[in-house]
C-alpha cells in the first residue's frame, strides 16, 4: 500500500529536471572554456581557437578528449583515497548548488504544472551557503593529499580566502533577505517581480556580493590558490587526466552558478524586464522557455564580466586580498545591513 501512495510521476519529473540541470551546467562549463579563450584572444588582439571545427567550436571536445585519454598519475607519496576524493568533492559540491535555483516560470506537461526548480525549500539561500562551504574541502583535501608543499600552501590560501569572503558575502545577503522576508529563492524572485529588482535597493550589497563571488570562485584578481607564478600550478599541481579536469570543470560550474545566483538575487531572476508577463496571451510552456532564456542571458552577461576582469585586472598580493576582505568588505557589508534594517523597520511602522 505504501508503494502505491508514492507519486512516481513527480519523482520522474524531478529526476528528468536534475538530469537537465546537470547537463546544462556541464555544457555551459565546457563552452565557457572556449568563450574564455575567445574573450582573451579578442582583448589581446589574437584569433583564439580556430582549428577544431568551424570557428573552433569543437575545441572544448578536443580538450575534454585530451584530458580523458591522458595518463593518470597518482604520486607514490600521496594519500591515495583523499587524492581521489578531492576532485570528486569539488565537482559534486559545484553541481549541488543548482538544486534550489528557479530556472523559469512553471511549465505545463500533460495537464500537470511542473516547476522549473529541483527543490523549492524554504531555506534555499542557507542551503546554497552550506554547499558552498563544503567546496573548500575539495581544495583542502586535494592540496594536502598531494604531499607537495606548493599544493599545500595553495590549499591553505584557498581555505583562508573562502572563509574570509564568505563572511562578507553572507552579510551582504542578509539585506536582501530583509527585503524579501524569506530565505526561499522562488519567493525572492516573486518579490522582485511584484516590485523592483533588488539591485535598485541594494547596489552596494550587489557590489560586495560580486567581489566575494570572484574570490569564492578563485577568479582573477583573487586567484591566489592557483597562482602559477608563485606556486607552480596551485593546489592541483600533482593532478592529471580527468581528476584535473574535474577541478577545472568545477571552477567553471561555480562561475556559472554564481552568475545565475546573482541574477536571481539582484536582477529579478527569470523576470523579463519592462514586460508584464501576466498580460501575455501565450502558452505557459512558451513563457517558461522565454523566462529561462532571459535568466540565461543575464547569467551569461555576468560570466562574460568574470572573463573580462580576468584578462584586464592584475592579481592581488595575498596580504592585499585579506586586507580587502576583513577591513573593507566586512565593515561595508555590516553598514549596508544596518542601514537596510533601519529603513525596512521605518517603512513597516
From TrEMBL:
Pfam families: NADHdh. The chain crosses the membrane at residues 15-34, 81-104, 124-146, 167-185, 197-215, 244-266, 286-309, 329-347. It comes from the Bacteria. Its EC number is 7.1.1.-. It catalyses: a quinone + NADH + 5 H(+)(in) = a quinol + NAD(+) + 4 H(+)(out). It is found in: Cell membrane; Membrane. One of its GO terms (molecular function) is NADH dehydrogenase (quinone) (non-electrogenic) activity. Keywords: Cell membrane, Membrane, NAD, Oxidoreductase, Quinone, Translocase, Transmembrane, Transmembrane helix, Ubiquinone. Its main location: membrane. NCBIfam families: PRK06076.1-2 (NF004741). NDH-1 is composed of 14 different subunits. Subunits NuoA, H, J, K, L, M, N constitute the membrane sector of the complex. NDH-1 shuttles electrons from NADH, via FMN and iron-sulfur (Fe-S) centers, to quinones in the respiratory chain. The immediate electron acceptor for the enzyme in this species is believed to be ubiquinone. Couples the redox reaction to proton translocation (for every two electrons transferred, four hydrogen ions are translocated across the cytoplasmic membrane), and thus conserves the redox energy in a proton gradient. This subunit may bind ubiquinone. Belongs to the complex I subunit 1 family. This is NADH-quinone oxidoreductase subunit H. It comes from Niabella digestorum.
Amino acid at each position: 500500500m505504501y508503494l502505491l501512495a508514492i507519486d512516481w510521476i513527480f519523482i520522474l519529473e524531478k529526476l528528468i529536471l536534475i538530469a537537465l540541470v546537470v547537463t546544462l551546467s556541464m555544457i555551459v562549463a565546457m563552452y565557457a572554456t572556449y568563450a574564455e579563450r575567445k574573450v582573451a584572444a579578442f582583448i589581446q588582439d589574437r584569433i583564439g581557437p580556430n582549428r577544431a571545427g568551424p570557428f573552433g567550436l569543437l575545441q572544448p571536445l578536443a580538450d575534454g578528449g585530451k584530458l580523458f585519454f591522458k595518463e593518470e598519475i597518482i604520486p607514490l607519496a600521496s594519500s591515495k583515497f583523499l587524492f581521489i576524493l578531492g576532485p570528486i568533492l569539488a565537482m559534486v559540491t559545484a553541481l549541488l548548488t543548482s538544486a534550489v535555483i528557479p530556472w523559469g516560470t512553471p511549465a505545463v506537461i500533460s495537464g500537470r504544472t511542473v516547476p522549473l526548480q529541483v527543490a523549492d525549500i524554504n531555506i534555499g539561500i542557507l542551503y546554497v551557503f552550506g554547499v558552498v562551504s563544503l567546496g573548500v574541502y575539495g581544495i583542502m583535501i586535494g592540496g594536502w593529499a598531494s604531499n607537495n608543499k606548493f599544493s599545500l600552501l595553495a590549499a591553505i590560501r584557498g581555505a583562508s580566502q573562502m572563509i574570509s569572503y564568505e563572511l562578507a558575502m553572507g552579510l551582504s545577503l542578509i539585506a536582501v533577505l530583509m527585503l524579501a522576508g524569506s530565505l526561499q529563492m522562488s519567493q525572492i524572485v516573486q518579490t522582485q517581480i511584484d516590485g523592483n529588482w533588488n539591485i535598485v535597493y541594494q547596489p552596494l550589497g550587489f557590489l560586495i556580493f560580486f567581489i566575494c563571488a570572484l574570490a569564492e570562485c578563485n577568479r582573477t584578481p583573487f586567484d591566489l590558490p592557483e597562482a602559477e607564478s608563485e606556486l607552480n600550478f596551485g593546489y592541483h599541481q600533482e593532478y592529471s587526466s580527468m581528476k584535473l579536469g574535474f577541478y577545472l570543470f568545477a571552477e567553471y560550474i561555480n562561475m556559472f552558478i554564481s552568475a545565475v545566483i546573482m541574477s536571481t538575487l539582484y536582477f529579478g531572476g527569470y523576470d523579463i524586464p519592462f514586460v508584464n508577463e501576466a498580460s501575455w496571451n501565450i502558452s505557459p510552456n512558451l513563457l517558461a522557455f522565454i523566462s529561462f532564456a532571459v535568466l540565461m542571458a543575464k547569467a551569461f552577461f555576468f560570466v562574460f564580466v568574470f572573463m573580462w576582469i580576468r584578462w584586464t585586472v592584475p592579481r592581488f598580493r595575498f596580504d592585499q586580498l585579506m586586507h580587502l576582505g576583513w577591513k573593507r568588505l566586512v565593515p561595508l557589508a555590516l553598514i549596508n545591513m544596518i542601514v537596510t534594517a533601519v529603513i525596512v523597520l521605518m517603512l513597516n511602522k
